[in-house]
Amino acid sequence: MSKIFITGGTGCIGASAIHNLLTHYGSEIESIIIVSRTGDPKLMKIWLGDSIDELVESGKLQFVAVDIGDSDALEKALQEHQPTHIMHLGALQSPDCDSTPAKGVEINVLGTLNLFAAVEKLETKVERFVFASSAAVYGKRSMYAGDIIPESETLAPPNYYGVWKVAGEHLAALFHERSGIPTVSLRLNTTYGPGRDRGKTSAPTVALKSIALGSHDGKSIAFRMPYQGRENYHYVEDVGAHFAGVCMLPFEGCEAFNIKGKTIPVTEFLEIASSVATELGMNEIDLGVEEDASPNLFICDLDDQKVDAAFPGLPKTPIEVGVRKSLETFQKHAAAGELKL
C-alpha cells in the first residue's frame, strides 16, 4: 500500500490531485500525508466535501504543519511517515516571487533542495517523486518558430518564478541520478476552475466567478483581463488527474512533461464563458480585456504528445466543458454565500 507525501497539498492543484488520487487509486493508498504551513482544508472541500472529516478520522488523510523552508522539520516529518511516493507542489507563486525574491529563493529553490536531500535519507524505498514545474521555464512565444512547443525546446524563463522552476528540474535530474528514484516534472500553464484564486493567471477563473456572483446578485460585475494574446488552458480537475496519474502509474527514469491543454486567444475564452453562462441562465455578464493590457508573458501551444505516450488516458477536458463545470460549481457557491472574488 502506498503512502503519498504531498507538499502544498491544501492548495488548488493539491486539492484536485488528492481528489483524483482517492477517486482513481484509493484502493492502492494507505494514507496521504498533506504538508502545508496552514493545514486549511478549504479548497479540498470543493472536491471532497464533508468526507474530509471521515478521511481524517480513518487516517487516510493526515495533515502535517511544516514549512518546506525548515529543513529539520521537513526531514523529521519524512522520517516519521516513511512515504513511498512524494509529490512536491509547495511553492511561492509568480507575483510573490517578483515582490519578495529572497523569500522565493528560500521556498522555491532551497525548499526543493531540502526535500530532495531529506528523501535521499529515507529508509523505505521511494517509488516516485513528482515535481510541479511550470511552462514558465520556456521563453516568450516569439522565440519559437514551430506551431507547437515540445519539451525539448530551449528553456529561457522570463521571470524569477520560471528561473527557479528550471533550477527545480535540474535538481530533480540530479536527485534521480543520485538515488535512482523515478522522477517526473510536470510543466503546467494557465489552470482555471474551482480553487484557482491566486497568481496572475488566475484571471480566467476570476472572470468566471464574476459571472456567477453577478448573476446571483442580479447585478453584473465588470471584469477585464489584465493581459491579452493567446493562452494555454488546463481545466483544474485535469491537472489534478495528471499529478495523480504520473505519481501512481508505471514509469522509469527522469523526464519533464507538458500537461495536456489547449491554446486559444484570451478573447475566445471570454466568448466561451459568456456563451456557456447564457446557456445556464446567467445573464449578468460584463467581460473584456483592459485597454492597455500587456501581452501574455507565458508560453502557449504546448505539445502534449509526450505525456500522452508515457501516461495514456490522462484527461483533456474541452474548454467549453471545463467552463460549464466551473460555472455550475461557482453558481452553487454563490447560492450558499461562499463565493468571493
From TrEMBL:
SUPFAM superfamilies: NAD(P)-binding Rossmann-fold domains (SSF51735). This is dTDP-glucose 4,6-dehydratase 2. Keywords: Lyase. It is an enzyme of class 4 (lyase). InterPro entries: Epimerase_deHydtase, NAD(P)-bd_dom_sf. It holds the Pfam family Epimerase. The keyword Lyase applies. The lineage of its organism: Bacteria, Pseudomonadati, Planctomycetota, Planctomycetia, Pirellulales. The gene is rffG_2. Belongs to the NAD(P)-dependent epimerase/dehydratase family. Its EC number is 4.2.1.46. Residues 4-240 form the NAD-dependent epimerase/dehydratase domain. GO terms for molecular function: dTDP-glucose 4,6-dehydratase activity. It comes from Mariniblastus fucicola.
